[in-house]
Each structure stands twice: as structure tokens, then as C-alpha cells.
Design a protein that fits this description.
- This protein has one domain: Alpha/Beta hydrolase fold, catalytic domain (Rossmann fold, 3-Layer(aba) Sandwich), CATH 3.40.50.1820.
- It contains 11 helices and 9 strands.
Length: 280
């Protein structure tokens, strides 16, 4: 284990899967535990680094790269979001944190939903950001299917298909590292992960969620339309809705606003700090 201030990096042995680096911000003694799950084609640092210091003032914060992304576990066979959820469960068990709040962004929000469904005993709550019950009927499945057919004909990187998931607004200095990370994600892996997102649906079971839940809605989202995010919130009994101004890449374009909304969403789930409102 490498120690740097309140931030530790664990090398976690995930049984039958390999070794996974996990970043652990200790937070206050006895603080609720958050596990942050990033979006497709990027890594945990890109998605969460701007908000981790603020979160760590109230919570123990754990981040990891999902399989096929960043330093995550390798993908063997078809990409399955269920496998990602099982990886998260293995990390929570290995670190012996007790039940944790799964905080997921976009694809990570789908993994968080599966984490509750497959590992209810490890789930203290859900914070679902810029995500939905499914992407059926949107442009996403058609775009992914078309790219999977054309990709072998053209030498393109993952950023060529994933860059539109980010806002056009971020300062180039903020956008460039995200694009570089996308380029490091193998195109085949990116396509398989995006195809897994296209196959995902929690429509039939999300109404059974029985843990505190908040849905963070990005009001100007072009990738996951806000009305789909609101439908997710309406489907979960007692869910709190928190809205922030921003597109799907708000974590890069407006990190302060994203951090504020995320803190309010986490407070609603963990009953710490100020109560969340329904608007930013």
C-alpha cells in the first residue's frame, strides 16, 4: 500500500480476476463510504479527480478503473456491466469497508444499479449521475452498431467515437487529458463497453431499489436526455433529484458546479451535511 497524505493506493487482489489498483481517500473517522464509478472510455481520475478532495472532507472515497479502462482489469470475452459490478463488490469486500454508497456516472450509473441488484448486502445507497434505466430509442445503439461495422475499415482511436460524449465547452487544457485517456482505451474495448451500455436495461427491476437513492440530473445533457434521467428518479421509490446546469461532460466543463451538486446528492443519501434541493 502506498500512502500519500490522506490518499492511499491499494493493490487489491480480485479473486479469479487479477490485481486492481484502488485509490482510497480516508475521510473523517467513521465517515460513510463512497465508491465512485466512472463513465465509458474514460478513467476514474478523469471523471472524479476534481471532486474527490471536496468529497473526502465528509466521506471515505474509493475510486477504481472499471475493467478495460485505465488501469482496470483486462476484458476477457464479451464486455459485461455485470462483471464490472462484481469487480466493485470484490473491492468492497477486500477493503472490508462494510456497505458502501455506489456513485456512478453515465455507464458507471448503470454499473451502480447492477451493484445494488447483485450485491444488496454491500449497498448502503445509490447516487446515479447523468444516467438512465436504458438508452433504448436514443441515437446511441444505432451509432454504436454502425461504428462496430465500420471500425475495421478505418484506423481510428476510441476518441473518434467517444469525444462527442464530452462537452465542447471545457478549456482545451481540461479537455486534452480526457481525450488522451480515450486514445489509450483500445477501440475494440470502447465499442464493446458502449455496446454493453446499449444492451443494459433496469426498467423491469429498478422500482425494487430499497436503499436511499439520489439522481443527479445534468439539465443540458445531449447524451442522456434529462427526461430519461428524471424517469429514472421517478422509478426509484423515495429518490431525491438534484439538478445541475451542464452537459454530459460537466465534470470537466464546470467542476465546481458538479462538485456542489454531487455533495448535495450524497448528503441526501447519507444524511450528512445540508439537505439536497431539486435544483442547483
Amino acid at each position: 500500500m502506498v500512502l500519500t497524505g490522506d490518499r492511499r493506493t491499494h493493490l487489491v487482489e480480485v479473486s479469479g480476476r487479477g490485481t486492481l489498483p484502488v485509490t482510497d481517500w480516508s475521510g473523517p473517522p467513521g465517515a460513510p463510504v463512497l465508491v465512485l464509478l466512472h463513465g465509458v472510455t474514460i478513467d476514474a481520475d478523469t471523471n472524479w479527480s476534481a471532486v474527490c478532495p471536496a468529497l473526502a472532507r465528509r466521506y471515505r472515497v474509493i475510486t477504481l478503473d472499471l475493467r478495460g479502462h485505465g488501469r482496470g482489469l483486462p476484458v476477457r470475452g464479451r464486455y459485461r456491466l455485470e462483471d464490472c459490478a462484481d469487480d466493485v463488490a470484490a473491492v468492497v469486500r477486500a477493503l472490508d469497508t462494510g456497505p458502501a454508497v455506489a456513485v456512478g456516472y453515465s455507464m458507471g450509473g448503470m454499473v451502480a444499479q447492477l451493484f445494488w441488484r447483485r450485491h444488496r448486502d454491500l449497498t448502503a445507497g445509490l447516487v446515479l449521475c447523468s444516467t438512465s434505466r436504458n438508452v433504448t430509442g436514443t441515437w446511441w445503439p444505432l451509432a454504436v452498431s454502425t461504428t462496430r461495422l465500420l471500425a475495421p475499415l478505418f484506423p481510428i482511436g476510441a476518441d473518434a467515437i467517444a469525444a462527442p460524449l464530452l462537452d465542447a465547452e471545457p478549456d482545451p487544457q481540461a479537455r486534452r487529458p480526457a481525450l488522451n485517456q480515450m486514445r489509450r482505451t483500445p477501440l475494440a474495448t470502447a465499442l464493446d463497453a458502449m455496446h454493453a451500455v446499449s444492451r443494459f436495461s433496469s426498467h423491469e427491476w429498478i422500482g425494487g431499489v430499497d436503499v436511499p437513492t439520489a439522481v443527479l440530473v445534468t439539465r443540458d445533457d445531449r447524451v442522456v436526455p434529462p427526461h430519461r434521467q428524471h424517469r429514472l428518479a421517478a422509478a426509484v421509490p423515495g429518490a431525491t433529484t438534484v439538478e445541475v446546469d451542464g452537459d454530459h461532460g460537466v465534470f470537466l466543463a464546470a467542476p465546481a458546479a458538479f462538485a456542489d451538486g454531487l455533495l448535495r446528492a450524497c448528503a441526501a443519501v447519507t444524511a450528512t451535511g445540508p439537505k439536497a434541493d431539486t435544483a442547483a
